[in-house]
Every structure is written in C-alpha cells, then in structure tokens.
TrEMBL record:
GO terms for molecular function: DNA binding; zinc ion binding. GO terms for biological process: DNA recombination; DNA repair. Keywords: DNA damage, DNA recombination, DNA repair, Metal-binding, Zinc, Zinc-finger. This is Recombination protein RecR. The keyword Kinase does not apply. Belongs to the RecR family. SUPFAM superfamilies: Recombination protein RecR. Residues 82-177 form the Toprim domain. A zinc finger (C4-type) spans 59-74. It comes from the Bacteria. May play a role in DNA repair. It seems to be involved in an RecBC-independent recombinational process of DNA repair. It may act with RecF and RecO. Transmembrane segments: none annotated. PROSITE patterns: RECR, TOPRIM.
Amino acid sequence: MMNKQPDAFARLTNALKVLPNVGPKSAQRMAHHLLQHKRKEAQELVDALQHALKQVSHCAQCNTFCEGELCSICSDSTRDARRLMVVHMPADVSNMETANCHDGLYFVLMGQINPAQGMDISAIALDKLVGRLQQSEVEEIIIATNHTAEGDATAYVLAELFKTLPYRVSRLAKGIPLGGELEYVDAGTLAQAVYERRLLKEHEQTE
Ligand SMILES: [Zn+2]
C-alpha cells in the first residue's frame, strides 16, 4: 500500500487519536482542519498543552487536577472535613459544587472500574485514597460514582474496602436516571441524590 500522506501529517493524525472517542477518520479530519484553516489556533493549542503539562498535577490530598500542592477546595478551612465524597472525575467535583449540595471534601478516583474488562482496580487511585484516609478526620464517606455498570463496579470495590474501616459509608440515591453519568445530571437531581443518599454502613467509634 502506498501512503500518500506526508509523514508529519500522519504523525499528527496518530497523535490526535489519543483523544477519547477519536478514531482514524475523525483524527484525519481534525488534522486537516487545523493545518488548513486554524494554523494560528493550532499554535495556541500547542502552547496551552505544553503549559498545562508543566503546570498541572494532582492535588496531594484529593487527587484532582490542580496547580500547586493543594487545590482550592482542600485548602479551604471552612469545608467540613468529616465528610468525604468519592467521585470519578474532576468534572464531578465541579458539578457537585454547582449543585451546592456538599460542603465536605472530595476524593477523585480519576477513573472507574470496567467490569467487562475483569475488575482491574488499577484503573482507580485506590492506594492514594487509603493514604488520604490515614491522615484525616473523616467520619462519613459518600460514594458518588455513576449509576452505570462501571460506577456500580467501582462502588462495590469501594464498599468492600470500607467494610474493614470505621467510617459511615453511604452512596448517592438512585434519583439519578438508570445508566446515568453524574456529568449529565442537572443540579437539582444531583442535590436530591446527595440528600437522599443510601446508608451502606454506620460509623464505628474507635477507641
Ligand atoms: Zn484537593
């Protein structure tokens, strides 16, 4: 097979395929669009990406993306440190904050477990979560994973882990539509799901 595309174009197309839901066709379309119509914006994209790669890392406490050691929520001393909400992605934190229904802290797993691929727990930041709990005043953990197969699998693994730990554990109510990802749920429904969260396990006092 002869490859009519210049190497640089092929390399760009290949690099773009790293984006979620972008296959070879979409990648080719994007590369074409950038090189043909958006050369100036493409440079800004390069600069922004380079800057973000250098500046953005993970919050030492909640694991979300942030610039510096701690994110703005973890460094806010008015937040209720007794309640820790565990979510999949940074976008879930933004949504919860918009819904204004949780004044505690968060932990961001940065992924979810896919039961179809054999319950691989390396997909979530479990070790970091355990480390986070060791130096905290947490009493209640709210599992706020999606109500999807992946979210349920993740919630199951978390609930198993917390079984041996002294915290009260709850999970968001099913007010969220079945197959619902938190990212697409409106603020009112989200607040309702937090308010009506289901208790999985009571808090045990440690002596
Ligand atoms: Zn944080």
